[in-house]
Amino acid sequence: MLEVYADPCTVNSRKVLAGLDFIGTKYNFNHIDYFTSQQKSPEYLKINPNATVPAAVDGDLYITESNAILQYIADDAGSAYPKDAKERCNVNRWLLWESSKWFPSCYIYLVEYVVKPLLKAEPDQSVIDAEAPNWNRLAGILNDQLGKTKFLAGDNVTIADISMAAPMHLHEAQKLPLDKHPNLQKWLGEIEKLPCWQKTQGAVDKALLPGR
Question: Span 2-77: which CATH code?
């Protein structure tokens, strides 16, 4: 059985856990506590030398990138990760874009407006102001795409949608200006209705928004 190592409250762990539930993959869950730096333990470093979560192990295969885990588990998942080469390429390009462009930008809002207050620190508005033009540019790309298709790669939810939504999983607390991008806002509302998303939201809220 697939062994999954994750902390359910982190963006990339939540992404994989939601994807596993969406696809219906059976797995064994191993909790790696990010906030106590368990991902840096000697035992875990043997699994993932990058000291990041999540990771997955299937026999002698070690997978250490969240989107790679999604691709692996979804290989035979039908419309969630189409077999057609062009359709799959379309999903893959959004997965790559999420990890290289979207996640880093959304993460700045997460750190400033969620993580810092959790650590009793003040957000740095200058950091947000510096990132805002880039975030809105990227959000505009998504907004344009979602004005053409219901979901990122067409009419069906794919692992690209699960991946793209993850960095926004606390969008209200992150103060992401989604109202400027109505197609993106509508799409996110649809993702939030998915049972896999609702099932994995509680751990995020409990860890990062205590008392709310």
Answer: 3.40.30.10
What are 88-103's pLDDT values in tens digits?
A: 999 999 999 999 999 9
Q: Tokens 């064994």 — which residue?
A: 28
Strands (DSSP E) contained in the chain are: 2-6, 27-31, 55-58, 61-63
Q: Domain ranges for the chain, please list them.
A: 2-77, 79-209
Query: Domain 79-209 - what CATH class?
Result: mainly alpha
Q: Which of 211, 207, 209 is nearest to 53 (CA)?
A: 207
Q: From CA 206, how far away is CA 212, in angstroms rounded?
A: 8
DSSP 40: G
The pLDDT tens digits for 17-54 are 999 999 999 999 999 999 999 999 999 999 999 999 99
State the Cα–Cα distance between residues 70 and 18, nearest whole angstrom: 10
